[in-house]
Amino acid sequence: MASERVSGVMKRNSRRVFIGQSNQANSVSQDDLLKSVDVPVIDADCRFCPDPCDQDHDDFAKMSIDMESDLLGSVKPYRRQVSPASIHDLWVDRLTTRQGCHFDRKIRLASEVTEADGTLAAFLCSANERHCTSSDSTGKASSAPNDNKPLPPGLFTQDTSNRLSILNGSHHSLSLHHDPASTLETVIILPDYKVVTDVPRSLEGAETLWKSALDPAYGRSGAPERSDTLKSWVLPYSCLILLCSHKRRDKRCAIAAPVLEKKREGWEVHTDLEDLSSKPTLEPYLVSRLFPGQHRALILRNSHIGGHKFAGNVIIYTPTGASVWYGRVTSHHVESIVANTIIDGRVLSPILRGGLNIARPGCRTVYDW
User: Fold this and answer.
1) Which long-range contacts does 108-115 make (Cβ < 8 Å, 24+ apart)?
2) CA 45/CA 43 separation, integer angstroms
3) Most CB atoms closer than 10 Å: which of 55, 178, 290, 363?
């Protein structure tokens, strides 16, 4: 039990416990603000190990992390986040600036994600540029689901933005299991919490995916009428954990990733997608009903998500369509994140950067529908 593990742990001063806050009162008011819009916050220590640490967590002592800037509010609203399978073992570090699909701003993109010639991610960016409008905003303010109360900075719903965030993940294309020379790709779509496979690695394939599943006009089920040959199903996991592991971009993220990956806490942990392509479509069902009583986590490493000064960065997605973004995560925080968020579904305010659909009226956790 988390409470048993917490027992005996030293109480830290407010500067250590409430990371990035000037004092404890500020963090308490932040907790109250989050609770006022029905974010399932838990009043728990973000750190389980003693301070000073005696558990081989020295890697983080050597890193310079921004502890002064506001952490909450550092996530930019988006409608969907997509993660095509990576065709490289390492993220390419060269960043480029290219004109994005919006007329009034530039988009900085990791070249491994959108500039590497011939990748599905690059084709997706091009397809998205063709279809997106001059503004990310939908014109709707971020407000709590029930009472239209303004959400705190960094918290938003899918109705807030049409922005498509494109990452590359450490999972492999499932078509390679059947044909090592295949150019058909596998894409994870979030917060829709589903997998789409057999996407041709081409601009035409990206266009097909966009029209069937990424168009902001469509909800979680995608286009109501389709003539394509794409296969899709709900992610068969209790949660998906994305670890920023862009080592050449910022090795602070990569140090946190393997530590988190090893913390299993009795759950069944996967580091690659399960191939369900031979089974009937699962989209009409909820994953919680398909896998009752099972605790299965999928942990993937992904290319840089932005905010490297807040490394390590962790995103936790749930089948309910919620995403919890944590920053300044070190190995000191791993057990608390596992116990309080991954297992219990509660949000740790001191390390919260923001999140999608985490204001949940009537819900005790981010797992509750």
Assistant:
1) 109/166, 110/246, 110/249, 110/303, 110/304, 112/86, 112/88, 112/168, 112/303, 113/166, 113/167, 113/168, 113/303, 114/166
2) 7
3) 363
- Across the range 341-369, mean pLDDT stands at 94
What are the structure tokens assigned to 38, written together? 């029905």
Sequence letter at residue 179:
D
pLDDT at 341 over 60: yes
Cα–Cα distance, 286 to 369 (Å, whole number) = 10
Give residues with Cβ within 8 angstroms of 265, minimum separation 6.
Answer: 338, 339, 342, 343
Q: Give yes or no for residue 286 having a pLDDT over 50.
A: no
The residue with tokens 């393997």 is 258
pLDDT of residue 350: 93
Share above pLDDT 90 across residues of the chain, in percent, rounded to a whole number: 35
Query: Which residue carries 């949000």 as its tokens?
Result: 347
Q: How far apart are CA 227 and CA 43, in angstroms?
A: 50
Distance in angstroms (rounded) separating the CA atoms of residues 17 and 46: 7
Output the CA–CA distances (angstroms, integers) from residue 42 to 23, 157, 174, in the order listed.
18, 21, 38
Measured distance CA(160)–CA(313) in Å, rounded? 23
Residue 149, helix vs strand vs coil = coil
Distance (Å, whole) CA 246 – CA 251: 7
Residue that is written with structure tokens 């949940």 in the block: 360
How far apart CA 306 and CA 51 sit, in angstroms, is 29
Alpha-carbon gap, residue 243 to 335, rounded angstroms = 15
> From CA 209, how far away is CA 196, in angstroms rounded?
8
- Whether the CB-CB separation of 230 and 209 falls below 8 Å is answered with yes
Token digits for 235? Answer: 């992610």
The DSSP bridge partners found for residue 297 are: 239, 269
Higher-confidence position of 17 and 366: 366
Say which amino acid occupies 104: D
Cα torsion at 168, 294, 328, 72 (round to 10°)? 90
